[in-house]
Amino acid sequence: MDEYYRAVQALPAWLARPLSALPPDIAEQVHEIRLRVGCGVQLTIGGRPCCPAGLPALQKLRLTPLQMEEIFLTLCNGSVHSYETEIAAGYVTLGCGCRAGLAGRFYCPPGQSAVLQELRSVNIRVARSREFPLSQKLRDILQQRFVGMLLMGEPDSGKTTLLRGIARELASRERAVAVIDERREIFPSEETAALPLDILSGVPKGQAVQMALRTLSPQVILLDELGGMDELYALEQGLFSGVEFIATLHAASWEEAARRPQVQYLQKCGALHAAVLLKGRTAPGQLKEVRFS
């Protein structure tokens, strides 16, 4: 069964039921489920939003604020306070590993976390448990001391899935691997059993890196979507103690990556040994080019 069907089960029954009627050949092409107040349900297929003819029960539906509140409560499993940290960052991670992005009116008091006051739209990205075979070139890099590596590509180019495969590969080589999985997208909770990996989730990445360095004695740290400079400073401390890292970064080209302050900082401190550019969403998980520093 495609992960699309698992994702829609996180929605209220009145919405999950008609969405589940989508034919399998179309369901496996869905990347996103978009819900907005005053609008109909849209599914992103091939990069374009649409409401497929295979969902006649939803053709005339226009979501109301009350329905959006029910959707939000259901996504949070009836316990909004349990997701306060994620909501403040604009998302909710579902049990199946999918992430529901939230948009609307937030209130952010000085020095405090943002509070969602009015939800206007939800975007559920369908996370599929695909595995890409690691290329021999990538396996060769992992065999050596790579210090720091970036996996770069545009959205939907397979960065997270490739990172998941690398984690399994390193674990099979009996490396001590700490996976920083802030949003539980790399390894959803039900997939972590029996994996010889140390996985830290639900904690901001910079803080999680510090926790891993202090308590887990990792040889390699993996993290998705390299973000602010606090994460880089934390990684730099690990590099000084011999810890290697692999991180993903949104960049569709070398020129775009070179303009990112994260890349410039890593290059300046000598922490970037290999940069892997993926082909893109038309060939997810496939390497376009590898450059070494």
Task: Give a quick set of tags describing it.
ATP-binding; 293 residues; P-loop_NTPase; 6-stranded antiparallel β-sheet; alpha/beta; 7-stranded mixed β-sheet; nucleotide-binding; AAA+_ATPase; globular
Mean pLDDT across the residues is 89
Strand arrangement across the biggest beta sheet: 9-8-10-11-7-12-13
- Strand count: 13
Which regions have little confidence, pLDDT < 50, spanning 5+ residues?
A: none
What gap, in angstroms, lies between the N and C termini? 43 Å
Compressed to H and E, one letter per element, the order equals HHHEEEHHEEEHEHEEHEHEHHEE
Radius of gyration, in angstroms, nearest whole number: 20 Å
Overall form: globular
The total of helices stands at: 11
Major sheet details: 7 strands, mixed
Portion in beta strands:
25-35%
Approximately how much helix is present in the residues?
Answer: 25-40%
Structural class: alpha/beta
Question: What do you see in this structure?
Answer:
This protein is globular. It has a seven-stranded mixed sheet, sandwiched between helices. A six-stranded antiparallel sheet has the order 3-2-1-6-5-4. The relative contact order is 0.12. Helices cover 31% and strands 25% of the residues. Strand 10 (220-223), helix 9 and strand 11 form a beta-alpha-beta unit. The longest helix has 14 residues, at 159-172. Helix 8 runs parallel beside helix 9 (229-239). The chain has helices at 3-8, 13-19, 24-27, 65-75, 84-88, 136-143, 159-172, 205-215, 229-239, 254-258, 261-268; strands at residues 30-36, 42-45, 48-50, 91-93, 99-107, 115-125, 148-153, 177-181, 198-201, 220-223, 244-250, 274-278, 287-292. The mean pLDDT is 89. With 293 residues, the protein is α/β, with parallel strands linked by helices.
